[in-house]
Amino acid sequence: MLTVTSVNVNGLRAAARKGYLSWLAGSPADAVCLQEVRAEEHQLPDEVRAPEGWHAVYAPAAARGRAGVALLTRREPEEVRVGFGAPEFATSGRYLEADLPGLTLASLYLPTGEAETPKQEEKERFMAEFSAYLAELRHRAAAAGREVLVCGDWNIAHQEADIKNWRGNLTKSGFLPNERAWLTDLYAPGAGGWADVVRGLHPGQAGPYTWWSYRGRAFDNDAGWRIDLHVATQGLAARALKAEVERAPTHGERWSDHAPVTVTYDTAA
């Protein structure tokens, strides 16, 4: 079995002060993908930077205090790569991948965007570059007999079932028609060839949501978005056994505005 967790920590140092380390110590995961780490390695306390029992690799952003992704794996990766070949985003701290036996695992933090602003234009440039890379990655992995799993904060809710207040967000970044169509194309059989693992295990239901705004009573009312995804090649997706959003019991017990998304795969199938 292979258990993988993905979580946007909303600042790793802050998360560590609020309970992240206790959560990690109790996690059954074989690999953990982190997003929005923000801190550089030298800024992290040793127990956070290199927790016992884990191999940790980081891809910080050149812009201090922003973005940053990381991978924690129980076994040492065979190879690690930062970025996906797009010069504009080479030092953005938004993509990191590692090769494990038979699997390429990646941590992604796709830009948030803001409708009708330069931030949205940046997000759309990222999406265009990244979809081209994903097509190349999928074909390269298939030729090598490998599977691929891209976990992270994709910052797009694909369907109405993926966002509680979808009617109020039709013109907001994260639920724009072109963003949703981009994911639809990614999941298209044969063409995109990727699979939304959690949706495959939980078809037809609202959520399970993974992010709730700190504003108002969004968490208490479960007014969330499902934007933290496991996106896998079809072979691996077919071997997903169970998925869980590790939602905190109460608002006060949260150590991030996102919840960890944990999926177990049968790698022996």
List keywords for this structure.
Deoxyribonuclease I, Chain A, globular, six-stranded mixed β-sheet, 12 strands, alpha+beta, 269 residues
Layout of SSEs?
Layout: E1 2-8, H1 12-18, H2 20-25, E2 31-35, H3 46-49, E3 55-59, E4 69-73, E5 79-82, E6 95-100, E7 103-109, H4 118-144, E8 147-153, H5 177-187, E9 194-196, H6 197-201, E10 228-233, H7 234-237, E11 240-245, E12 261-265
Parallel strand pairs: 1-2, 7-8
Antiparallel strand pairs: 1-12, 2-4, 3-4, 5-6, 6-7, 8-10, 9-10, 11-12
GO biological process, one term: DNA repair
Keywords: Hydrolase, Magnesium, Manganese, Metal-binding
Active site: 109, 153, 258
Could you walk me through the main structural features you see in this protein, from its secondary elements to its overall organization?
- The mean pLDDT is 95.
- 24% of the residues lie in helices and 25% in strands.
- It is built from seven helices and twelve strands.
- The longest helix is centred in the middle third of the chain and has 27 residues, at 118-144.
- It has a single domain (2-265), classed as Deoxyribonuclease I, Chain A.
- Strand 6 and strand 7 form a beta hairpin.
- It is globular.
- The strands form two sheets. Strands 3-4-2-1-12-11 form a six-stranded mixed sheet. Strands 5-6-7-8-10-9 form a six-stranded mixed sheet.
- It has 269 residues and is of the alpha+beta class.
**Low-confidence parts:** none
Q: Averaged pLDDT, please? A: 95
Distance between the termini: 9 Å
- The figure for the number of domains is 1
Number of helical segments with 4 or more residues: 7
Strand arrangement within the widest β-sheet reads 3-4-2-1-12-11
Helix content: 10-25%
Strand fraction equals 15-25%
Using the CA coordinates, give the radius of gyration.
17 Å
CATH-derived topology = Deoxyribonuclease I, Chain A
Coarse structural class: alpha+beta
**What is the CATH class designation?**
Alpha Beta
Largest sheet: 6 strands, mixed
CATH superfamily, by name, is Endonuclease/exonuclease/phosphatase
**CATH-defined architecture:** 4-Layer Sandwich
Number of strands: 12
The coarse silhouette is globular
- SSE order in H/E notation? EHHEHEEEEEHEHEHEHEE
